[in-house]
Amino acid sequence: MGKDRAKATLFVLMLMMTSLSGCFGDELSDLIPERKGIPGGLALACLRADAYTSMVVEIDYEPGYRPMSSSTDMLLDRLESVCDKPDGITFDFSEVSFGHEGDWTADDVREKAWDNKDSSPLEGSTLTWQIIFPSGYYEDDSVLGVAVDASSIALFGDSIDTANGPFNRPSVEDVENSVTVHEVGHLLGLVNLVYQSPVDHEDETHKGHSNNEDSVMYWAVESADLGNIIFGTLPNEFDDDDLNDLSGMADGSIKVTDQLWS
Prior knowledge:
By secondary structure, this protein is an alpha/beta fold. Helix content is 29%, strand content 12%.
């Protein structure tokens, strides 16, 4: 099958997916107390080095749910390509027991994340973001990951494990890689969460997401229905519009709002 035909097939399959409830857990306007911020609320703290010259990504996972090394390696590459951190970006892994029973809600994720943070998101000259990998499923089991505030996201390994498609295409590894970058993209403010892009690339019916199926911020990336994709590959990179938005936010040419620090 040719590349163009494969891409067309991927697009059609995605359009046939059921509508997503969204990977934010709640409506953005109702998300959380101000001190925790909204997704994108620490975008400038990452994109600029004015006050925060280093960054730590804290990864808290339950036993058996440690993320694949390919996911964290890819995430590091994506962050280093857009965030100005002259003193480096590092990962801090911790195995924890969240002690949660039943399906997860956005409030559950937020509570457990903050209960287990090793440090404040803004401490000294270091910015800290947190990814939790709990056991179990989100309350909408078609959702693979959620961004719940300015520094915290969750990926649901049980859902990811069952999201691979026939013949293992896409593979569980491919799904985890894409969803990890996608959710961190929301912490960076993509798409239009804390700014308004000069380019019309936000999906009209899936706010906060790209309308380009080649972008990791495409609206379908977070859905368990990714397992329906047999042909083509899952996007795991920011597209040119995403990158231009991030660059404009960093250099001040795009106005950014709702920042916990700026």
